[in-house]
Amino acid sequence: MRYSKEESKMIWDQNAEFWDYTMGDESNDFHRNVVRPKVTELLNPNPTDYILDIACGNGNYSAYLAEKGVSVVGFDYSEKMIKLAKKRRKRNMDKIEFCVADATNEISLMALKRNRMFTKAVSNMAVMDITNIKPLFTSVYELIEDNGVFVFATQHPCFVTLTDKYMTPHSYYDIAIEGQPQKQCYYHRSLQDIFNICFDTGFVIDGFYEECYFNKEIPDIIIVRAKKVSGACHSLQVQRN
């Protein structure tokens, strides 16, 4: 990948206040109507859950879960974003713990381990922003309980990219919201790359959606549910023949 984690983090720190203001208390229309419904369907949150919210931004989805009675640990690698999340979500802090952690660093991720195993993990539109996702998937697998799920939404790699390359992982600059101060670093991976990281980690994919904005026929995002199957051997998770 061409761009560094440090550069990406600096850009998100610069965009943090704009992002918090634009997303507000309820997220924007795209997140509310395209991302959230299917993520929530696959996640199936309930008050007994203890959920890890990955790259939580200003805490919109963490708060959405908290309103449903769910206990949440939300983290982001932008200290500024976490500061803004704590400020915006004061009324939900009895259900949410916000932390600074690096999704590319297994030590940082495993430091999120608490006395109770997470029942589920979720990531809304962040996988394409992360330089190296293998440590994230490996750590989430260890942090969630047996038969727990990791639900993630990310931009559709087949249709949403500014380059003419698909098979080769690569990075490029683009914007997420019109008017943001800095273009961010995007990290393209094929469906094959994303799914094989799930399989190599030990997950079984048992839920999948492709979602369109404005009722188009070309999808903007994928939503994947990866399940940690109790007692399953990694080598038996997928048949690649």
Automatic annotation (TrEMBL):
Boundaries of each Methyltransferase domain copy?
51-156
Q: Work out whether the entry's keyword set contains Signal.
A: no
The answer, when asked if Transferase is one of the entry's keywords, is yes
Q: Name one GO molecular function term.
A: methyltransferase activity
Question: Sorted alphabetically, which keywords does the UniProt record give?
Answer: Methyltransferase, Transferase
Question: Mind telling me which CDD domains this protein's record contains?
Answer: AdoMet_MTases (cd02440)
Protein name per Swiss-Prot or TrEMBL: Class I SAM-dependent methyltransferase
